[in-house]
Write a structure and sequence with these properties.
- By secondary structure, this protein is α/β, with parallel strands linked by helices.
- The chain has a single domain, classed as Vaccinia Virus protein VP39 (Rossmann fold, 3-Layer(aba) Sandwich), CATH 3.40.50.150.
- It has 5 helices and 7 strands; from the N terminus they run H-E-H-E-H-E-E-H-E-H-E-E.
- It starts with a helix and ends with a strand.
Length: 190
């Protein structure tokens, strides 16, 4: 659903790929936008993203290491669009609101955001025990929808929900099955 939104959305100009990680959707975004600024807190992930970017698209890509819980190193009204996947559900509501405020600051009027937000996360180890991430809020679908609709009340926003079927994940020598519901937010700044 997220990739579909990228393909079907009106994408033009300068876009921010916030918390891009290794850039799972970055090439799709680069093929549509004139410029993409990929950010992440991990410079190593950004270097990997750059290496994996097709050569013909590298001139359209900028990479900047930054922490999204701090003021972002961008000017007011700098971006035509902002894309973020797989990250913002990790923050409690107060931190999320601060991040959204920064995104609103750097997004142009009529600019677009495409964000996904995981809910009802389950990580189950092979022995049946739960794998947990310390400090993760663990939003339910209903509470996240209510919260996000309130956060985006000053935007023209559309909310879609879907489910991620269990998939095997391997992290730091651990293996677990990951599944969740998620919310895809497509918002336009008024």
């Amino acid at each position: 659903m997220t990739k579909d939104a990228l393909i079907k959305s009106d994408i033009y100009g300068r876009w921010l790929n916030l918390c891009a990680g290794d850039g799972r959707f970055n090439t799709t975004l680069l093929r549509r936008a004139q410029t993409v600024v990929a950010t992440d807190v991990d410079p190593g992930a950004l270097q990997k993203l750059y290496r994996l970017t097709p050569d013909e698209l590298k001139q359209k890509l900028e990479i900047i290491a930054c922490n999204i819980v701090e003021p972002l190193p961008f000017h007011r009204d700098e971006f035509d669009g902002i894309f973020c996947t797989g990250t913002l559900h990790l923050f409690p509501t107060t931190v999320f609101n601060n991040i959204l405020g920064e995104l609103g600051r750097i997004l142009k009027a009529d600019g677009r955001m495409i964000i996904d937000f995981a809910t009802d996360i389950r990580r189950i180890r092979p022995d049946g025990s739960l794998y947990t991430v310390h400090g993760e809020p663990l939003y339910t679908l209903d509470e996240a929808l209510d919260f996000l609709k309130d956060c985006f009340n000053s935007y023209a926003a559309n909310f879609q929900t879907d489910t991620v079927a269990p998939e095997a994940v391997h992290v730091r020598g651990e293996t677990y099955l990951f599944s969740c519901n998620y919310i895809l937010i497509q918002a336009k700044k008024k």
